[in-house]
Amino acid sequence: MPVLTDDQYRTIENNTSALAFSIDANAINWRAVGEDDPLDRLLATVLIGVSFHHLEAREITEDEDDGIGFKSYPEDYDTLRELAGGRPSSTMSIEGHDYILFLTPYCA
Question: How confident is the model over 6-64, as pLDDT tens digits?
């Protein structure tokens, strides 16, 4: 597993395939766990090396007054945005719904 210095990373950052590995979105087995609407929140398990992680998808809403937020658990949106350095997150469409995905390690 290579660990790159900042200079090495900058040298190859235009070649996305050298920086990222790909998970086929169609191969993810999602579990719908939202409270009001099960599709508001999806969970999956990802194994990286020997470490299990939660892959979570939160459905987003967008309106002119409130902007972007999570459809369920709206208070979590600000926390996730803060963890992302205040920057907007990219979204992914799953079965016609738009989601923000994030990955966290299982607790020991």
Answer: 776 666 666 655 556 677 777 889 999 988 889 999 999 988 888 899 998 888 877 76
Burial letters for 49-72: b for 16+ Cβ neighbours within 10 Å, e otherwise? eeeeeebbbbbbeeeeeeeebbbb
Total Cβ atoms within 10 A of residue 80: 15
Phi first, then psi: give them for residue 12, nearest 5 degrees: -110, 5
What's phi and psi for 67, nearest 5 deg? 75, -145
CB burial of residue 28 (10 Å; 0-12, 13-18, 19+): middle
The predicted model scores a pTM of 0.71
Biggest CA-to-CA distance, the chain: 47
DSSP 34-66: -SSSGGGEEEEEEEETTEEEEEEEEEEEEETTT
